[in-house]
Amino acid sequence: MAYSDNDLVKQYQQGEPSAFEVLVSRYQRPLFTFLLRLTGSRERAEDLFQETFIKVLEGLPRYRERGKFGSWLFKIAYRLSVDVWRQDGFWRDRVTRTEQLDDIAISTERLPDAVVERAELLQQIEAVVAKLPQKQRRVFLLRQHGGISFREIAELTDEPLNTVLSHMNYAVAKLKMAVESTSAPKESEYGKTRSK
After folding, report:
1. Does pTM top 0.85 for this prediction?
2. Under CATH, which number does the domain 1-91 receive?
3. At residue 101, does pLDDT exceed 50?
4. Record: fold of 96-184
5. What are the residues whose beta carbons fall under 8 Å from the beta carbon of 155, sequence distance 6 or more?
6. 178-193 tens-digit pLDDT
7. What is the DSSP track for 63-110?
8. Domain parsing of the chain, residue ranges
């Protein structure tokens, strides 16, 4: 039987340390991905990942179910990343995600075309997300990876709700343009496209 996040929190609060391990395993991948995309640095993401779970561990005894555990977790991670950013301005010197993807590129010679095309599309999306202005990227990542509501993002970032929605709209529009430009038929492959 799979327990809900809040059930696991209650178990931990009642003295069951293995419940925390389940929460960590449940959120380690999405949280690390969020931090990696937010910072653009594997080293920073690893540090923030550890700090986030330390803060969660410290806060669990006082945690009260007022919303989703996952939202609370991602808010902690985001606030920690802002603290680090304020201390040393690491977002100004961030390494783009596309450079990291180049470092760990896999051979695509033996993969089916559909898999290769999907990987290329995901890489292009990653590149667009990495190049988004900081506020747009932040809202996009909090919403997509953190599952945080727009109202919560507005509270977390101290911005009006309409501004947060605007950042998301601009980010989605840029991603949509990138995807559409990728899926448009190429003249060299299909011959000249007809215009109406």
Report:
1. no
2. 1.10.1740.10
3. no
4. Arc Repressor Mutant, subunit A (1.10.10)
5. none
6. 777 766 554 444 455 4
7. ---SS-HHHHHHHHHHHHHHHHHHHH-GGGGPPPHHHHHHHT----TT
8. 1-91, 96-184
